[in-house]
Design goal:
Structural class: alpha/beta
Radius of gyration: 16 Å
Strand content: 25-35%
Number of strands: 12
Oligomer: single chain
CATH superfamily: Aldolase class I
CATH class: Alpha Beta
Number of domains: 1
Distance between the termini: 8 Å
Order of helices and strands: EEEHEHHEHEHHEEEHEHEHEHH
Number of helices: 11
Amino acid sequence: MELFPAVDLRDRAAVRLVQGDFGRTRHYGDPLALARRYVDGGATWVHVVDLDAARTGVPHNRDVVLDIARHVDARLQAGGGVRTAADAISLLDAGVTRVVLGTAALETPEVLAELAANHPGRVAVGLDHRGGEVAVRGWEHASGTALAEALDALAPLALAAVVVTAIDRDGMLGGPDLDGLHTVLGASAHPVVASGGVRSVSDLHALGALSAAGRRLAGAIVGTALVEGAMTVEEAVAACASSG
């Protein structure tokens, strides 16, 4: 299981939202410095989300994302506001390893299908949900699509991963949605990356031990627990490496 330490961007700063609420933002300074700290601790991936772009579709923090891609010695998984093929390709061409589509995956599935076919292994889908219903446009709008329905629609595509976020757990340090993730593992043949609620090394061990249909999680995104000091990057990397 890979560790994906998170760098969420708002107004060019590193932040964390509580339960996806833009009115409950915590600030953590320079995003490039944060990404470098993760890599210095042993992380080989960094997960970057442009939260402003996720809401509006306008790449407000694109230059910050590209700075991280250029200056941090790690693979970069980047999303937030990737609405078109041109958006995704510009990120991939600039050094981003994997792009994550969320809103576009539901609203313009033909764009996702084209990208997945033309860039195998480099396109993922973010499914951020509340109570099993996928949310879009920066988590602020309900899509009307159930998580299970979205997974079924993605089944034919050659995706690098599906990134599943339990919004109500995100930023809360209350533990991951183990039951929900177990269901996702059983329902999808794609690699699954878990996000939301991780608070401790024991949570990472629990995620690593999840198994359904003979499959385990491909990765775990951790944000608040790292920036708040609930665990170190080194501890998180070791916990993920020991899974399975």
